[in-house]
Amino acid sequence: MKYIKKFEAIRLRDVKTVGGKNASLGEMIRHLTAQGVRIPTGFAITADAYWHYLESNQLIEKMKQIMKQLHGTTNIAVLKKVGAAIRHLIIKGTMPDDLAHEIVAAYRELSDHYHIKDCPVAVRSSATAEDLPNASFAGQQDSFLNIANEHDLLDACKKSMASLFNDRAIIYRIDQGFDHFKVALSIGVQKMIRSAVSGVAFSLDTESGFKDVVMIEASYGLGESIVQGLVTPDEYVVHKPTLQEGYASIIRKVCGDKKTKIIYSTGKERTKTVAVSSKDQQAFALSDKEIIELAHFIITIENYYSKLKKQWSPMDVEWAKDSHDGKLYIVQARPETVYAGKKSVTFEQYVLHAKNKQVITTGLSIGNKIVSGVARVVKGAKDIAHVRKGDIIITEMTDPDWVPVMKRAAGIVTDRGGRTCHAAIVSRELGIPAIVGTKDGTSAIKNGQTITLDCSDSSAGTVYKGALDYETKEISLADHVSLPVDIMVNIADPDSAFHASFLPVAGVGLARMEFIITNFIKIHPMALLYDDHIKDKKVKKEIQALTAAYTHKPDFFVEQLAQGIGTIAAAFYPRPVVVRLSDFKTNEYRNLIGGYLFESEEENPMIGFRGASRYYHERYKQSFALECKALLRARNQMGLKNIKIMVPFVRTVHEAHAVIKEMKSHGLVRGKDNLELIMMCEVPSNVILIDQFSQYFDGFSIGSNDLTQLVLGVDRDSALLAPLFDERDAAVKIMMAMAIKGAHAHKRHIGICGQAPSDYPEIAHFLIKEGIDSLSLNVDSVLSFLMHNKKK
After folding, report:
1. pTM exceeding 0.70
2. Which domains does the chain have, with CATH numbers?
3. Rounded to 5 degrees, what angle do the CA atoms 459, 465, 471 make?
């Protein structure tokens, strides 16, 4: 055939003939099917067919005349008029007989191949200048789904050609310097997967560019619901290195609301949007086994393209699960364009200085920036023209046709959508911050109101009232900094771990469980263990809402904690990550959902029922068993053997023995699979009896906050005594020096993870002089410390 190429006959080198999408599909079908990657086949209608269609209908000169109206202007009204006129010309044209004959013949052959009469197909555009690195926006041309007869296929082909002159495509070509009449359009016709579940996947973390994970989003029905931002999808993250070692390394699973789905329709419209049952909304769309299989597909695709291009080539992939055979299929793949080829040697730090902040709404943050501007509430196409340069767009969800105007915006806020919705993708490519999925942004934010978008705090984005004061710092870490000790980092939030992993640190000296429990789990572990005994209806309702996807409630605690720990450990793998067991005080435990039912009120919780004393006590040991299961899962099931376990607030040698015995009963055995146990050195008895504690632990980490509290007898929660609380006090420094000397006498590693060296550089230098092995600092303190030493 003159105008048709089967996917099996297409290579990447055919991009000028069939465009990026089709060339990629052909390359994968030929080379990756044998490696187990399932890809539905089809055929490409070449760029020559596009020119043949225009010429046979004598459209080119007419189109050029219409395009002259755009000369020297990008006025939105003129653009819409020009685009509509050209699309009308193309759609009203007549399909040449020879081209129609070839398309129909190829379609019949495809139907015969799958043994389906009038095989349903997806018709997608593949522009010959599309999907090039650094020159790609989401949703350039239109797709047509569930096309199931010859007449509709020919009609869809004409509409696909016409979509080369969508408003957004015209502006895109102007910006990229492409001649409108040197860009052609190829059409991909691919066997349609009857999508029970579908979504997108990236072979990297889309927010930070961290390359060691596969990020998957999943929702019911067709994938358009995710791209259009109609739903908040499930999110799954898989760690590549340990997956390839044979572990089931799912380090994150978040159940999205998935309230609607797009399905096939037999009416005039080929698809329709319907509601999803509450039961399905609360369930994960993919099983763990399916997540793992899909992750293997993505890695196989990335490895192939990286080898082909002789450099790391992260991929953006669309996939679907067929409702007929229950199998997973890859339907599209293209290079990821934001991080491909980037070598990050700088850190851009945004710091919000304002103290009196009024929160308007919150959502998922895209990017790590802070911006202020005028809110422009956009309810529809008629409002988009009012957006001025520097405004912040507030809308339910962005539309692909808005891209030209979005380029003027300083930021974007949406009611709906997840991390790979259209607003998120475009904002990343434009380099502007966005907060998606706020639910109430368009109602909570007033049109014309001055607001500040804060996306600097990992995954949580906040919209504040007014223009708040903030600072931007660009820090280069390109030059190696030689230091006398290992610098490590303190991490609490798993969502910030990937970005922090780019720091030139030796690992994580303190990963706090408390943040994961408070922000991701939110429920007291005993309330999950004794859910049937709880009579408080409000508490039961809150627990049910959070744990709906879990039949056995304690599994929620174990899986969420394991995934939070696992995310931090994966980010720094294979560098060591020291995870501290929970160190809540009773008043903090009471604040968890259901906590008041299981925690007493103490006069001074700071020196009360906390740390090691809880783990072997009858009132908490069942909950401690869940912590142990989570750690065991992260190490053994996810394969993250770089995790070390740290025990806080160990008052006596007897407690050390009791806790280690309790951990052993749950499978956490010192020395087994190279498991190391670390003890917080924060009670004076730890320093005095460090020779005895050394028999139970592989190392120590000074907790300067509690050590200062107990050496000086100052309640660090007391505002009245705050002036007396000072880690630089001579007595505290003597105790820290004694701890270092004692640990080294027994050949034990000792570091510090307390706040002191982060707040006071002089403490850091004092500890280095005393011979400490490592300093673990907060992220911002790591940057400051490295830059300070770099200057020297």
Report:
1. yes
2. 4-191 (3.30.1490.20), 195-335 (3.30.470.20), 346-475 (3.50.30.10), 487-675 (3.20.20.60), 680-773+780-792 (no CATH)
3. 65
